[in-house]
Design brief:
- By secondary structure, this protein is an alpha+beta fold.
- The chain has 2 domains: 126 residues, no CATH class; 102 residues, no CATH class.
- Helix content is 40%, strand content 25%.
- Strand 7 and strand 8 form a beta hairpin.
- The longest helix has 26 residues.
């Protein structure tokens, strides 16, 4: 492109911004129309693929023994540089922390809560859904080991108030898991005559997991198989949408670095040259005359 009429500012900065966040590089260059087009199209493709898979299709499961096709698909997805870098970081965190269940805390946790409470009340058992707040506290157990205790305050479906104490040995699901909910396992205790008695347990209980601890976290092999079984053909469709989004952003990055893929003023000059070459000269246009001698 001879004489570009688009102000690319610093092409290197623009291309880095476009790589990290689709549309941001063009916004930096003041190319608002392209910034909107690239941002809407690329994020829509990526978001639709993520929604089809429940947010589980974008992950980095690098390591020995992983299929090469997984790596190639992730490379295509990594055209979206920002999410790709997050996925690589999450993959390393997952390999370091693994599937460790949390059995001790460094500080108290207070969070919203939902699940079921199963209580033993004489000859009848109570099994009711409850929502509310759960409070978890670090504590030293009776054998000197760190453990977790807690309390639940909420309401049952019938509107009755729920206020129960959680026994020592309460457990939380792994810190990292590709799911926005974190499981809670605990027994419920009551005090009778100065004695602590286990009277029930939590069932299918969970608390919210922070976005940083579930987005782009790799699935285990079992979870990956379950995702294939659950999604069926939509698994491949979700993968393709996220790959297309990444590859499309590669084109956006190049556009931010080198500008539009066409020149200005070249066509008109070439057209004028062709026109001049096709017009006959004045001399050649004059008919030859043959003079007659007398």
């Amino acid at each position: 492109m001879q004489e570009p009429q688009v102000n690319l500012k610093d092409p290197l900065i623009a291309s880095v911004l476009a790589f990290l966040v689709p549309g941001l590089g063009h916004l930096y260059q003041g190319r608002l129309f392209k910034a909107v087009i690239y941002s809407v199209c690329i994020w829509s493709l990526f978001g639709y693929g993520m929604s089809l898979s429940g947010g589980k299709i974008f992950q980095y499961r690098g390591g020995p023994g992983k299929p090469r096709t997984e790596l190639l698909s992730f490379v295509a997805q990594c055209g979206l540089g920002g999410p790709g870098l997050v996925a690589i970081i999450q993959g390393r965190r997952y390999r370091r922390l693994g599937e460790q269940v949390t059995t001790s805390l460094n500080e108290p946790i207070s969070s919203s809560f939902e699940g079921s409470i199963e209580l033993q009340q004489g000859e009848e058992d109570l099994d009711e859904v409850v929502t509310g707040t759960i409070e978890l506290f670090p504590q030293v157990g009776q054998f000197g080991d760190p453990t977790i205790v807690g309390r639940i305050i909420g309401t049952f479906e019938n509107g009755q108030t729920a206020d129960y104490t959680l026994a020592e040995g309460t457990r939380l699901g792994p810190l990292l898991r590709n799911s926005p909910r974190r499981a809670v396992e605990a027994d419920i205790v009551t005090k009778e005559g100065g004695n602590t008695i286990r009277s029930g347990r939590l069932k299918d209980a969970s608390i919210p997991r922070s976005f940083w601890n579930w987005f782009a976290v790799p699935l285990s092999n079992f979870e990956e198989q379950e995702l294939h079984r659950e999604l069926g053909k939509y698994h491949e469709l979700a993968l393709v949408f996220t790959m297309i989004a990444g590859l499309l952003n590669v084109l956006a990055v190049w556009d931010a670095f080198d500008g539009p893929a066409y020149g200005y003023g070249l066509d008109s000059e070439s057209d004028d040259d062709d026109t001049d070459s096709q017009q006959p000269s004045a001399r050649s246009a004059e008919p030859e005359t043959v003079g007659a001698s007398t």
